[in-house]
Design a protein that fits this description.
Length: about 425
């Protein structure tokens, strides 16, 4: 039975012509698979608009030429999935198929929860409730095709640099950075947590690799209700041996240039559907120190205490002066995690910003065993809880540095979306979780 089903699937793939290719085959017979996006009955002629993920085409059936096929086509509900075979022909400025058969593979029940043509707008909540059906809306489909292109471009960039892709655990025994923003899970009767980042694992891996990267989901139990926060997010992480934060900022700058060059080039069709042009790749990304940022903010009329995080109104002031990409470097060490390299009251750290939006953070890591343990103590964390990690630093840990970049936030920039939930297939936030 399984062999028969497999053969049927192979036959479908072999006989199928994508609509984007079918419109080029004037005078040839093709078999297409798709769904009926629209249907018009004008006198004795049925016009079906059939779409698949590659495009759409008109199928024309005249009653006086094939009454049975005309009646069948007239009765098929919109959005039903069909298999159609026939002759491709040019009719004026249009290309159409004159069918010799129509098979209904799946009937769409009406009324539909959303309009898959996109003509009737639906709320983001309604779209997320019906995500698979929403992918028939060309603009939404284009967003996720661009997301796939972006991940491919990022992987390509890292691989061309000689970095190794890795997979780190998502169920961990202790917090990566300390703090309370953790999802606790029952791991066979023992407490465990969903990983906030691959940070400590990717640092360990620089003992044997020159550089490692990972693109994966991570979790933060923050009750944030903004348009740019999720509890499950996709992070792009890199860690490089024998590097400091200047080296890493250079790599990240090069990657940003590559992304904002290659994604528009490879995803021009999708961007045309979205009617959007992403920002151009930066010539260079300027670097301002935390101290300089504080001065700019104060000059802009916002009272900010040294050592504070930069957010809200303060970011608006910075964004006015730096509307494009820029780094904020040399943050106060007290505001950074224990694994960041300390230099007095400051740290070898950076945030990559685009206007007021934080895209990435990173820095030089502390690779010296004694200094690392001291850092953990000064952050009021339990040193013994991190012994599983710090013990490797006794065996020759190379100097290293890295960053983490939020893919979801990056996609809002590449697609021109306002809400991060629009660029994630099944977003998770404090109010949203689906089976």
């Amino acid at each position: 039975m399984g062999i028969v089903i497999f053969r049927e699937v192979v036959n479908m793939l072999n006989e199928r012509t994508h609509i984007s290719k079918a419109i080029e085959k004037i005078g040839e017979k093709v078999t297409i698979y798709g769904w009926i996006e629209d249907k018009r009955i004008v006198g004795g002629v049925a016009f079906l608009t059939v779409r698949d993920p590659s495009g759409l085409i008109q199928v024309t059936i005249k009653k006086d030429m094939n009454r049975e096929l005309f009646m069948k086509a007239s009765a098929i509900p919109r959005q039903s999935v069909v298999k159609i075979g026939g002759l491709v022909r040019q009719f004026g400025s249009k290309v159409e198929i004159i069918p010799n058969f129509i098979h209904v593979l799946s009937i769409a029940k009406h009324p539909l929860p959303i309009d898959p043509t996109g003509r009737t707008e639906a709320s983001i909540h309604k779209l997320l409730q019906n995500r698979p059906l929403s992918l028939r809306i060309p603009e939404i489909n284009a967003i996720f095709r661009l997301r796939a292109i972006t991940k491919q471009v990022i992987r390509e960039f890292f691989i061309n640099k000689g970095f190794v892709e890795v997979d780190t655990p998502k169920i961990i025994a202790t917090a990566t950075e300390g703090g309370a923003n953790l999802f606790e899970v029952n791991y066979f009767g023992k407490p465990a947590y969903l990983a906030q980042s691959p940070q400590l694992y990717k640092e360990q891996l620089t003992m044997g690799f020159d550089g490692v990267f990972e693109i994966a989901q991570f979790y933060r139990a923050e009750k944030s209700h903004t348009r740019r926060h999720l509890t499950e997010f996709t992070s792009v992480d890199l860690e490089v041996a024998f590097a400091d934060y200047n080296d890493i900022m250079n790599i990240l700058e090069e990657m940003i240039k590559y992304i904002f060059t290659e994604v528009p080039r490879r995803g021009h069709k999708e961007l045309n559907i979205l009617n959007y042009t992403p920002p151009p790749p930066p010539d260079t990304i300027p670097r301002i120190t935390y101290n300089e940022a504080i001065e700019i903010i104060r000059e802009g009329g916002v009272d900010i205490k040294w050592g504070s995080d930069i957010d809200g109104e303060a970011l608006e002031v910075l964004a006015e002066k730096h509307p494009g990409f820029y780094y904020i470097i040399d943050w106060p060490w007290d505001s950074k995690p224990f694994y960041i390299m300390r230099k007095g009251d400051l740290s070898e750290s950076f945030d990559l910003m685009l206007g007021r939006l934080e895209l990435s953070s990173g820095g030089t890591r502390e690779h010296r065993y004694d200094h690392l343990r001291r850092n953990i103590k000064e952050k009021n964390l339990n040193v013994e809880s991190f012994e599983y990690h710090t013990r490797f630093y006794k065996f020759g840990m190379p100097p290293h540095a890295g960053f983490g970049l939020g893919l979801d936030r990056l996609m809002t920039i590449l697609t021109g979306r306002e809400n991060i939930r629009e660029v994630v297939l099944y977003p998770r936030d404090p109010e949203t979780i689906t089976p």
